C-alpha cells in the first residue's frame, strides 16, 4: 500500500545512520556525529543535518539522501 500524502525525507542523522553510511560501528558513528557538533559549536545532543554531515565528510548530499530515504517517490520501478 503506498503512503498517504507527501513523504518527507530524512533531514537529520542518528548514530546508526552515520555508522551505516560510513561502514563503521554504532559507537564510531556516535563519535563522528559528536565531532561534527563540536566543530559546529552545537550542544551535545543537538541534531546534525544531512547537509552538515556531508560538508564534514565530503560525501555528496544526493547520495547520502538516497541512501537514507531509499528510492525517490514517483520513480518508476522496472517491470
Explain this structure.
The structure is a single chain. The chain has 79 residues and is mainly alpha-helical. The chain contains 4 helices and 2 strands; from the N terminus they run βααβαα. The protein has helices at residues 15-22, 26-40, 50-57, 61-69, and strands at residues 12-13, 48-49. A two-stranded antiparallel ribbon has the order 1-2. α1 crosses α2 (26-40). The two termini are 17 Å apart. Residues 73-77 have low confidence and may be disordered.
In summary, what is this structure?
The chain has 79 residues and is mainly alpha-helical.
Detail the topology: elements first, then pairings.
Elements: E1 12-13, H1 15-22, H2 26-40, E2 48-49, H3 50-57, H4 61-69
Antiparallel strand pairs: 1-2
Helix pairs in contact: 1-2
Distance between the termini: 17 Å
**Level of helix content?**
40-55%
Which class best fits the helix and strand makeup?
Answer: mainly alpha
Report strand order across the widest sheet.
1-2
What is the average per-residue confidence, as pLDDT, rounded to a whole number? 87
Key terms for this structure?
79 residues, mainly alpha, 4 helices, disordered C terminus
Amino acid at each position: 500500500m503506498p503512503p498517504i500524502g507527501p513523504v518527507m525525507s530524512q533531514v537529520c542523522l542518528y548514530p546508526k545512520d552515520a555508522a551505516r553510511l560510513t561502514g563503521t560501528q554504532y559507537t564510531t558513528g556516535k563519535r563522528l556525529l559528536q565531532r561534527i557538533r563540536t566543530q559546529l559549536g552545537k550542544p551535545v545532543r543537538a541534531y546534525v543535518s544531512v547537509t552538515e554531515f556531508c560538508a564534514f565528510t565530503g560525501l555528496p548530499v544526493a547520495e547520502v539522501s538516497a541512501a537514507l530515504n531509499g528510492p525517490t517517490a514517483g520513480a518508476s520501478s522496472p517491470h
